[in-house]
Amino acid sequence: MKRIAIYCGASKGKDESYMNEAYQLGKYMAQQEYELVFGAGSVGIMGAIQDGVLDHGGQAIGVIPNMLNEREITSEKLSELILVDSMHERKNKMAELADAFVMAPGGAGSLEEFFEMYSWAQIGIHEKPIAVFNINNFFGPLQTLLNHMISEGFIDAKYSRLAPLCDTKEQLFETIHNYKPLGVRTYD
């Protein structure tokens, strides 16, 4: 395993610990010789993770659609910038490049990109590890929703372990390394 795709926000959040932990995650990735695959932004959680990686000699590969590159703050420090034509191409390219998928705090875009990888795992498009970096229990409410979906029969119970919440960067990488594919979704 070499490359980790991280879906996260271009905002920094209200608590400075989000940015601090994001930077430490990037630093840890570089020290462990993982490459970052992400949305190419230089601000918010994205920028903090990237800075942690690059400040410690790691590699950061940014993937961004042309239309966002023209409107957003694309990092100028990237090891590699990949421009694509659409958000669909961005997600496909990130999935192709990555050996594992992680979600860190962010908004609707982060959720959308991450849950595409989640649903792809359910239907067998990939068998790559998935995990969630749960800074400040940010994703506690999301886990409650997923548990509700499972208890109501909309997600198979075996997927309760598909995207575990990890409170530390060490736990996050231990989870990724010990990942076992859960198999495809079955229909009753």
Automatic annotation (TrEMBL):
<keyword id="KW-0203">Cytokinin biosynthesis</keyword>
<keyword id="KW-0378">Hydrolase</keyword>
<dbReference type="InterPro" id="IPR031100">
    <property type="entry name" value="LOG_fam"/>
</dbReference>
<protein>
    <recommendedName>
        <fullName>Cytokinin riboside 5'-monophosphate phosphoribohydrolase</fullName>
        <ecNumber>3.2.2.n1</ecNumber>
    </recommendedName>
</protein>
<dbReference type="InterPro" id="IPR005269">
    <property type="entry name" value="LOG"/>
</dbReference>
<dbReference type="Pfam" id="PF03641">
    <property type="entry name" value="Lysine_decarbox"/>
</dbReference>
<comment type="similarity">
    <text>Belongs to the LOG family.</text>
</comment>
